[in-house]
């Protein structure tokens, strides 16, 4: 029942999505996957919120050496995503692949307690990221495959909103525990383990598995080969979308830099620094569903590009940096809007392009190219900052983003039937 | 339907089990935290009392001995550090004091994040002013005259995909109350040439007695440098490599510092550098020292080492500053030494 009926012509599908007729607004499996993500994010953000503190106060690490590991993780995570996507298609079992990813991350939580050195801790965190990389594409593919073409944006919006809710509840839970038990980092990790286990259990119990009308299972077809997945790149519309996502990713300054710029150029007090990501998250959370639904109506590419226009506006505001108290909230609002317009909308846009049996591979391909491009942007931006300073580096990114957005606008301009 | 019902029952059972487990873990940690705040037999005697920074021949520190005065600022006579401790009603993560000025860095769990602040203290350990901090307290210093105060915190920025760390070092002029939020606004001269980079970090300031010169650690491109700075000219100049957390001797001729012995690993040895000749001397301490040392006099430095068997606790040790002798346990269960 979660399968899109492929015999339905695309136009009819779109009609169905446009009308607000009877039936649930999102498929139950989307809500279940949203719940799994919410629970898992509570678990992982609990750890993220206290990890720096734990490293410094309990393990006595000098944290400067830690940042260098981060770039490596991001690269690894992007490549793992590709593997996860292909594995899911190949095994024709998205649930299993996603489950392995969630399970791996859950297993890492108790291991954090045993990691006493930077090396072992680095390994545990790398394993955690591997789990995250593995599950992303199959999970998105399940959302994609269980939702009619006309409701993709809303479905991904619902999932991302639930996911972000979890990310915001995590720190709240962690600091509640630390207030109840001074230096209770082990308690934070322990509770995080329990929460992560619950997330895996919800996935196992409530996401339909193979042969039960599960999303992503198409019976009686040849197994997917690597060559077939690579041949996806020959699909002109997928190639265009992947290239545009990468191109725009090349000029998308990473969150950390945005907050740093906000602090330096807009004069945000240092004590607020750790709260800046929350501002982005709140806006993302509030806008994810309405913007997703809007994308279903007016076209996902339009919304995707509009999101980048919002990011460009944020860059412009940061460059201008007027001494107005409204500047930081405005930049954060634009940053959150950018996420709402892009994070779920991009996978939603892939629905009509990638064949079902290769959906996870296609999602992973686009996701990976975007992630790798953003990673390159971080490196380049850091180097530019070093050589020319934050203003010129930002001006360069803004000019680059404008150029890339113009190219993407041309490439992705709506054709007759493309949405 | 029955299968759905079975799955819901299974979920309910798992939720109850996991909730019970989580509650148990938290209660266990809370009980342990409670125990740490109860006095232990055989521990040092600590009593509440009046502490002032005008007293002479006292050693102040942050008490780490289990009991109700854990993390409180406490003092012992310099001559008899094993004597009973007098604890003030002030708790700190890091503390320092000189010439009637004190600084106390605090860190407490807030709602969504750790809440960190610096307290500027007068001679009666009363708070003159509070400053919000950008991160986890690390180092604190007061100039020998009591006019300038410096602190370093670890800053971490989180986002969905990245975590990065940096240090932030601030200097406060207590006469004008002018705060330099970050030393990174000072101009840097490295190896004789002006130097700019986005990855510059400073930590571990120590002040000279002229109320202008200071020393600190500068980190850039994965290297650490000892820098000499001028507060009036807002500049720093690199002097030597692989020097962290310098501490200037009372006579102003040497700095004690920690030197990284294995790149990439958290292993440091404590050294003393002669500022005139740049000759370095390894001290007799064989353990890894991760602290900004304090000079008790012109011949002895004191520093904290992790206490055996107790995570997060430390002891104060002292060692001769000329590389001879052996380390001596100065005050067990203590950190942040500040001699008066």
From TrEMBL, chain A:
The keyword Nucleus does not apply. Residues 1-21 are annotated as: Disordered. One of its GO terms (molecular function) is transmembrane transporter activity. It comes from the Bacteria. The chain crosses the membrane at residues 100-127, 161-181, 187-207, 240-262, 274-295, 302-321, 327-350, 371-388, 394-412. Pfam families: MFS_1 (PF07690). SUPFAM superfamilies: MFS general substrate transporter (SSF103473). Residues 29-417 form the Major facilitator superfamily (MFS) profile domain. It is a multi-pass membrane protein. GO terms for cellular component: plasma membrane. InterPro entries: MFS, MFS_dom, MFS_trans_sf, Sugar_transporter_CS. Keywords: Membrane, Transmembrane, Transmembrane helix. PANTHER family: C-METHYLTRANSFERASE, MAJOR FACILITATOR SUPERFAMILY TRANSPORTER. This is MFS transporter. It comes from Streptomyces filipinensis.
